[in-house]
């Protein structure tokens, strides 16, 4: 009886320790999720292994909820910038139109031609006209059509880009049969924008890698979305500029317009994905962008 009592006691103790350890892990999960929500980081994904069936279902639901919240926040952010941009471009056009018209009339006057005033008025006319052209071009670019999603082979597209930008040294770690669920035209434009951005930052090489993710997929027929990492060795992005990188019209380049990255993110969000700046760069790269959930 004593022996059986000891065995039963040990079993109860082991079961108790197992329950306590399991509860401790659940408490840690809750803490991690609370911290993620507090920091508005809805990209959290906690593993579902070592969970009981009910707990596993709950964790899967929470992971999916986080993904849905993240997508909605991204959509709201884009819509907010779109509304603000529409107002700004409208006001800019209203402000520049009379300036362009009046300066053009003044330049045609005989008493202005050949005088010191002509150079000043011409500078005003050229500046207002260029600003109007910029706003007009931005409007055309920002009027995106609804994406047509399909299975797109990555390798041929990347091969085509390499031939287009032969001045760069390319390293691509992409499976020959890798496909993504995306709008082919939009995806090509996004990649071209990122490459042009790298060239403007004086990059000499491009590195591209793919990784499979285990995130809940927005496309049931495409259960294993791919994350595409695109790095370059151009000028690093200062820490103080990282938060503003995708804001429309924000640029640190003398000749930049601040349109390419914000437009690329909009196109990614329209396809159910996301474009972000990676926290950790690819080897040998100073800047790495992440195209996720495609």
Automatic annotation (TrEMBL):
Enzyme class: transferase
Enzyme Commission (EC) number: 2.7.13.3
PROSITE patterns linked: HIS_KIN
Pfam families linked to this entry: HATPase_c (PF02518)
Alphabetized UniProt keyword annotations: ATP-binding, Kinase, Membrane, Nucleotide-binding, Transferase, Transmembrane, Transmembrane helix, Two-component regulatory system
Gene Ontology molecular function terms on file: ATP binding; protein histidine kinase activity
GO biological process per UniProt: phosphorelay signal transduction system
The Histidine kinase domain, residue ranges: 87-294
Coiled coil region boundaries: none
Domain of life where this protein originates: Bacteria
UniProt-recorded name of the protein: histidine kinase
Organism of provenance: Xylanibacter ruminicola
Species lineage: Bacteria, Pseudomonadati, Bacteroidota, Bacteroidia, Bacteroidales
């Amino acid at each position: 009886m004593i022996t059986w009592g000891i065995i039963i006691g040990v079993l109860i103790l082991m079961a108790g320790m197992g329950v306590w350890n399991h509860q401790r892990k659940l408490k840690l999960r809750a803490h991690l999720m609370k911290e993620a929500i507090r920091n508005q980081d809805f990209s959290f994904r906690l593993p579902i292994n070592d969970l009981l069936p009910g707990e596993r279902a709950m964790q899967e639901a929470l992971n999916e909820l986080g993904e849905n919240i993240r997508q909605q926040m991204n959509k709201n952010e884009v819509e907010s910038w779109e509304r603000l941009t529409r107002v700004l471009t409208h006001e800019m056009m209203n402000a520049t139109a009379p300036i362009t018209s009046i300066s053009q009339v003044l330049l045609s006057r005989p008493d202005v031609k050949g005088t010191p005033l002509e150079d000043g008025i011409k500078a005003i006319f050229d500046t207002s006209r260029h600003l109007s052209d910029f706003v007009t071009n931005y409007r055309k670019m920002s009027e995106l059509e609804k994406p047509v999603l399909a299975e797109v082979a990555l390798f041929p597209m990347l091969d085509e880009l390499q031939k287009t930008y032969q001045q760069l040294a390319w390293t691509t770690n992409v499976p020959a049969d890798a496909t993504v669920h995306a709008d082919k035209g939009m995806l090509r434009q996004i990649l071209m924008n990122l490459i042009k951005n790298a060239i403007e930052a004086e990059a000499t090489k491009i590195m591209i890698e793919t990784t499979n993710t285990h995130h809940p997929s927005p496309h049931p027929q495409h259960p294993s979305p791919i994350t595409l990492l695109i790095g370059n060795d151009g000028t690093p992005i200062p820490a103080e500029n990282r938060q503003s990188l995708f804001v429309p019209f924000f640029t640190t380049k003398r000749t930049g317009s601040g349109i390419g990255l914000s437009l690329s993110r909009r196109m990614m969000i329209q396809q159910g994905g996301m474009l972000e700046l990676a926290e950790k760069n690819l080897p040998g790269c100073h800047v790495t962008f992440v195209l996720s959930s495609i």
